[in-house]
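Thread: NnrS family protein, structure

OP (GT): Posting the sequence first so everyone is looking at the same thing. Length is 389 residues per the record. Can we get the structure tokens written out before standup tomorrow? I want them in the notebook alongside the other entries.
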Amino acid sequence: MMPRKEYTGPTLLSYGFRPFFLLALGFASISILMWMLIYQGELTLSGPFQPLDWHIHEMLFGYSSAVITGFLFTAIPNWTGRMPVRGWPLAALSLLWIAGRLAVAGIIPLSFTATMLLDCGYLTAILVIVLREIIAGKNWRNLMVIGPIGVFLVANILFYIEVLQNGESDYARRLAFAVVIFLITLIGGRIIPSFTRNWLVKNNPGPLPAAMNRFDKLCLLAAAIGLLLWVAAPDWGISQGALIGAAIMHVARLLRWRGDRVRATMLLLMLHIAYAFIPLGMLLFGLGLTVSGLHIFGIGAIGGMTLAVMMRATMGHTGRVLATSWDLAFAFLLLMLAAVVRSALVDISTDPMMALWTAATLWTVAFAMVLIRIGPWYCRQNPARRKPS
């Protein structure tokens, strides 16, 4: 068997998490400020979407897709034992993602159809690569991730079709939210109890997280049913009841992971806190509080979980100690505060615009702080691999 050739290209392109987490952090640091300027009429975009649809689309198919790509392209080599996607293919995918963002914003002047093909082409490429790697590695256990990614691609296509036919999205935006939330319940249900168990065994002997069993599968099924009913008929009583039921089950699921025993490690506690926003969002939708539910999902669950995962994965894969510095912990708390302000205070504030700007600023500062701290790590070799001077 021929030995594997060691990678000698740019460090940034040596592993999937490096360019895509960097792109996600950078995009998150500017996109919400852009949205606020657009919302106030001080900035105009000439892309294919109305302002609200641009905001929703780019948070889901821009920011979230970059984090999902970075996570999968880093996890799959561990699942399959195959070499990671790196070098020029990774550079091409990164440029394709960037081109999609520029086209959707109208900075690259393309027709509606060309923008759609470019933007959806990115997720198509990701789906093909993930499918190829899992099949080539015969890693059938993780083939289940193909389904949500495929539905996510379909949601993006439907987003464009709805805008073309109706002028705005409706079902597609809910479907995209549902897919990302379901992915968090699926992947979070594996990594959170696993990381928690590993830390507790070493640092805090005692009760451990419950192992994956039928109850977890029932929780996933309940989430899938509740979210799909919400996509199809959000105001239907059965949909709301299903979401409330799913919320109760996911609270019970979270409690089984022993988050109360990891208070001493903020890096782990972040994951438990972010996951708690999933049943909270489901409950709010079940109660008919749609706008609050969307921002609890978007900022608290998606923003919080992706930020926590990016921090932990970056530390682990760049040879850093798995410990949160004060600025990273503070950034996460700012993001959680942004979720509370946007979902709870805007509607009751005497100055809603000030509340909106407060939430937007908290989000922006949170991601900017993380970008400043860990952004340079993506372009540098791991400390253990640096040659002595």
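GT: Both are above now. Quick notes for whoever picks this up: The chain has two domains: 10-169, 180-379. Residues 171-203 form the longest helix (33 residues).
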